[in-house]
From TrEMBL:
<dbReference type="InterPro" id="IPR037171">
    <property type="entry name" value="NagB/RpiA_transferase-like"/>
</dbReference>
<comment type="similarity">
    <text>Belongs to the 5-formyltetrahydrofolate cyclo-ligase family.</text>
</comment>
<dbReference type="GO" id="GO:0005739">
    <property type="term" value="C:mitochondrion"/>
</dbReference>
<keyword id="KW-0460">Magnesium</keyword>
<dbReference type="GO" id="GO:0035999">
    <property type="term" value="P:tetrahydrofolate interconversion"/>
</dbReference>
<keyword id="KW-0479">Metal-binding</keyword>
<keyword id="KW-0547">Nucleotide-binding</keyword>
<dbReference type="InterPro" id="IPR024185">
    <property type="entry name" value="FTHF_cligase-like_sf"/>
</dbReference>
<dbReference type="GO" id="GO:0030272">
    <property type="term" value="F:5-formyltetrahydrofolate cyclo-ligase activity"/>
</dbReference>
<dbReference type="InterPro" id="IPR002698">
    <property type="entry name" value="FTHF_cligase"/>
</dbReference>
<dbReference type="GO" id="GO:0005524">
    <property type="term" value="F:ATP binding"/>
</dbReference>
<keyword id="KW-0067">ATP-binding</keyword>
<protein>
    <recommendedName>
        <fullName>5-formyltetrahydrofolate cyclo-ligase</fullName>
        <ecNumber>6.3.3.2</ecNumber>
    </recommendedName>
</protein>
<dbReference type="Pfam" id="PF01812">
    <property type="entry name" value="5-FTHF_cyc-lig"/>
</dbReference>
<dbReference type="GO" id="GO:0046872">
    <property type="term" value="F:metal ion binding"/>
</dbReference>
<dbReference type="GO" id="GO:0009396">
    <property type="term" value="P:folic acid-containing compound biosynthetic process"/>
</dbReference>
Length: 292
């Protein structure tokens, strides 16, 4: 791997991986249930963008990195498949209860959340979603219910929108068997796209296959979330809005040792994790807003 690319592969508040990203990656699943102290915040290092005239060597390094991601995904999928169902259900409840009780969740007014898919062994969000959608709309003039946006895949070019729903019946299964909203509601009205909304979301609850304590997130490989998050962060910047808090929900077994998840400059780091053992704040924004 060229020196230029090694520098380019570092992002925001990450320190350098302890091993080169292209080295063969042993999978170290971290100790479950134990909450180690969060890593100290490391200021961003200067990052250079990948040169436009990417050399064959750089492309080979990228290919090796994506190959490592595929191997890692496959190992984590196996670990998730072999997870004891009772433990899974215990962890699903613990994670959702932590979120429901958290001040940063209680105070949030608008959020994006994923609709969990049990076949993908994702952390369950059904309790969170039903609590949100069952809460009273208003008290007098005061808006009580959080505004909820959920993903809808538009095409295979990593294009996903976040559309507003107000009822769980607004969802239908897509070709991947994930529930998502139709673009038009039962009254024939276009659903609001979060990218067109006049007010910002404060929070995003993210799925993923694996995470680490420096904020790295391994998705399912479609690039949907990284593309969406980058666009939303740009929108928030253009409007001078506060950036939303990016919080990933993770079973214990999905938190990997630091440096194991390879990243490129396109991968967006999360601000915090919620595991059954508690909230793991990572970024300065998380320490500030989660008041831990
Ligand atoms: N609940 C949920 N909704 C979501 C996502 C998600 O990860 N979870 N997405 C996040 O992007 C988008 C959909 N992207 C997806 C990408 C891959 C697969 C999937 O079934 N992957 C299989 C492997 C398929 C293969 O490799 O051929 C798997 O991971 O087991 C599903 C959704 C939008 N909605
Ligand atoms: N060898 C490669 N060189 C360049 N791009 C690649 C290569 N292999 C895959 N990609 C592309 O990189 C994109 C993102 O992959 P990445 O591994 O970052 O996804 P992810 O973070 O797991 O997904 P998501 O953001 O949806 O959670 C995909 O659109 C994929 O087509």
């Amino acid at each position: 791997m060229s020196g230029r690319l090694v520098v380019a592969l570092m992002t925001k508040w990450c320190t350098l991986p302890t091993q080169p990203a292209a080295a063969p990656i042993p999978i170290h699943l971290s100790r479950p249930a134990l909450l180690r102290p969060p890593p100290l915040y490391a200021p961003p290092r200067a990052t250079r963008t990948i040169a436009m005239n990417t050399t064959n060597q750089d492309q080979d390094s990228l290919d090796a990195l994506f190959k490592q991601k595929r191997i890692l995904r496959s190992n984590v999928r196996k670990a998730l498949k072999s997870m004891d169902p009772t433990l899974r259900s215990h962890e699903d409840n613990a994670i959702q209860n932590i979120v429901l009780e958290a001040p940063w969740f209680k105070s949030c007014q608008r959020l994006c959340a994923y609709i969990s898919c049990s076949a993908l062994r994702e952390v369950d969000t059904s309790k969170l979603l039903s609590e949100i959608l069952q809460s009273p709309l208003k008290e007098g003039d005061v808006q009580l219910r959080k505004k909820l946006y959920v993903p809808r895949v538009e095409d295979k070019n990593s294009h996903m929108r976040m559309l507003n729903i107000s009822c769980i019946d607004d969802l239908v299964a897509n070709s991947m068997n994930i529930l998502e909203p139709a673009p038009v509601d039962s009254g024939g009205n276009e659903r609001e796209d979060v990218m067109q909304a006049s007010d910002p979301v404060d929070l995003l609850l993210l799925p993923g296959l694996a995470f680490d304590r420096s904020g790295r997130r391994l998705g399912r490989g479609g690039g949907y979330y990284d593309t969406f998050l980058t666009r939303y962060q740009e929108l928030a910047k253009a409007h001078n809005w506060k950036q939303p808090l990016l919080v990933a929900l993770s079973y214990s077994t999905q938190i990997l040792d630091e440096g194991v998840i390879p990243i490129t400059p396109h991968d967006v780091l999360v601000d915090a994790l919620v595991s059954p053992a508690g909230v793991i704040p990572i970024s300065p924004a998380a320490f500030d807003r989660m008041k831990l």
